[in-house]
Structure formats: structure tokens, C-alpha cells
## 1
Amino acid sequence: MTQPVDDPVVLFERVGEVAVLRLHRPDRLNAFTVRMRRELEAAFDRCDADDEVRAVVLTGSGRAYCAGADLGAGGETFVAEPVDGGVPPDEGGLASLRIFRSTKPVVVAVNGPAVGVGVTSTLPADVRIASETARFGFVFTRRGLVPEACSSWFLPRIVGIATALEWTLSGRLIDAEEALAKGLVREVVPQERVVERGIELACGLVSGTAPVSVALTRRMLWSMLGAEGPEVAHLVESRGIYERGRSADIREGVEAFLAKREPHFVDRVSDGLPDLFGQ
């Protein structure tokens, strides 16, 4: 069934300082399409541009989070034409990279089954939680594919190489408790509370914090996973301390602490972030 043109497949809702993005093809278990990727990217662009949005929660409509790629085209689903004579970019990878580049913390509230790109595209998030009904499947070898959505980079860093290999080679389904035990998700909650809990966690990440410092910290920690050694981190952190040390935020943060009051940070993410990586 084709989604009507004017019917969005990614819903946007504001709950205070949190933007809730909901994958919305419930009749297809929120199966992933090119249109969904584009709307997801647009939603993250909207969040990054709005300084009133401090964090993002991703979830799904209906009983599933995302059943993976829409297989409506059958065996031709993954056939793609070259782009400018080269390999076309993986659509799931484009979604993952956009989430990775978010300047706001991202929490995924996995409300039900998350399979294929439905799980791999959650890996760039900062926190994942799952409902008791959630199931995860890195099923690519069972479809004749290989992992995508940058998961060969993200997954071993989250759960370790041994677990990543077991899950991706076997392609078997993983229940919420195993996902919790291996560190894929932070906690498991009743299905009716998963979005509410996701919003609570998102608020906890940004309450009383400086938006620019949060954005830079997120970028620094992800980037340092591939650093050659602590000297690289020292250089990046030194640049960060230098840049933030001259900001209005640092004065406000210190003065608020000394006065035992809540800080009111004024620096805005939308004004741009300093380059700490010498690029």
C-alpha cells in the first residue's frame, strides 16, 4: 500500500524541550523507505535549527518500531543503479549518518520489533531503551545481504566484537532481555511507558546543561572512538576548553554554581559550533 503524498511517514511532536519523531507507517510495521529516510533527515534538520529543541526521542507508531526495509519490490528491492558511475550510497547509512551528526542528544524508544535497518539505524543514538515486546534482528545474512547503516562501525563499539559477530553472522532474533544484558539497550520498560520513559531520559540529558557544550561533548566522544591515542583527545579537549573558556556560557555556569542557582545559558547551537578537530 502506497502512502498518500500528503500523509507524512515521520511524525513530529514537541513535548516541552523534547522533539518526538515517530516512524509512521503502522500498516507496514513502519518499514523503511527512501521517503522515510528523507523525512527523517528533514526532521533532524528542523531539530538542529530550533534552539528550543534540546533533545530528540525516536519511536514508532503502532506495535512495531521498524520492520526493516520495505520489501514491496520483492527480489528487486535492493537492486540500485550506479550514481555517476559509482556505487550508490546505502539509504540506511544516510539515515544513520544524519542521526550521528545531530547536535542534540538522541534517545530511541524501541516500542516493538526492530529488524534490519530498523535496528541498525538506532545505533548512532546516545541511548536506546526497549519495551518488553521489542525484538531485534540483524538479519542480513538470512536475506543474502551484509550489514548496513554504518552498523559494522557502530555495533562492535556498543556491544563488543564477539557479540556483534554472533548477532550479525547468525541473523537470529534477539529479545529485549538479551539486548539489555549485552548493552544494546539501557533498560526494558512496559510497552505503554516506553515513549514516556524515553522523554524522561532525554530531559535528564539536557536539564541544567549548556546546549553548545552538550553538542560538542557528543561530537567529541563519538569522534575519539577512532583516535590513535590519548594525545589526539588531549589536543581536541584543549581546543574545547579554550573555546568554551571564552564563552558567555562558562561565566554563567561558574557564577550560577557559586550562587547556588540554576544557570541560564545563552550560547546557541544554531549560531554554529567551534571546530575542535582542525578540519
## 2
Amino acid sequence: MALITTERLTLREVTSADAAFIIALYNEPSFIDGIGDKQVYTVAQATEYIAKNFTKSYHDNGYGMYLVVLRDVGTPIGICGLIRRDYRDDFELGYGVSKMFWSKGYAGEAATAVLEYGKQQLNAKEFIAVTSMSNQASIKTLERLGFLFSKVEKLAAYDEESRLFTLAID
């Protein structure tokens, strides 16, 4: 069932039926380089990852990361949503789009819809986003969305330093 709909996209909860897509996306070299190796290589690992991360977040927080699907053909192209980390008290925007769908504006379209959802449904007043130091594509997307670079930080979820961006809601 669609949670968010845009002109070209539908965002919905990720389920165990999406395991094959999650494996494919999470093992793209660009995903590993830009986001990290989540160690999801089999259907069993993907199903467990979906339960422990996606489904748990929906249950515990009322939001999470969503599957991004092309509306007209139903093809999954990525994930986008809000992350709640145990060690932070922010709404963190996250997204990852399969490389074959880059440079079409899908990440920005999905992220804009998620940010609007966060403002309207969750009363979020500020968002953060984190990128690897070298992920220029995500940095450009975040800047187009109005995020401002805040600082370089070593976050508990990542082995290396990351760039932290913030977006305040008026």
C-alpha cells in the first residue's frame, strides 16, 4: 500500500517480498562506496535485515525507510525515508537509488516527498542527513534540497568520518 505518492514515484513500506531487490541494491558498488556494506548477500540475510531495520522502525517509531517504486511500471528503484538512530534524537533523511536510475531526479523527488511527510505527519522541525566524505552525488542532492553542511563527524553507525548536513524548517 502506498504511503507517499509523487508525480513519478510511489513510496511504501519494505516487506520480505522485497528481499531480492534489497540484495541487488545493497550490493551495487556505488551503494557500498556511498553508503556502506550492509553485509546482505542472501535472501535469508535480506529478510532478517528487513525485519530488524525496516519493519522494526515502522513499529517502534511510526516511520522508517521506504521502497521507492516507479508509479507507471511498478519497478523498485531505491529506498528513501527517515531514520531514527539509538544514539541521536533527530529525523535523519536517508536514501539510496540504484545506479541505473541516477541523474533522473528520482532521489530528489523521493526525498522532497519524505521531508514533506516528516513536516506534516511527524511535526519535524529539523532534519539531518549524513554522507560519506566523497559522495559528491548525495552532497549535491542534499544541497538542492536546502540542506546546509554542518560539520565533519565520526558517527557511531559508520567506521569513517562523515559529512553531517542539517535542514531547519521555518
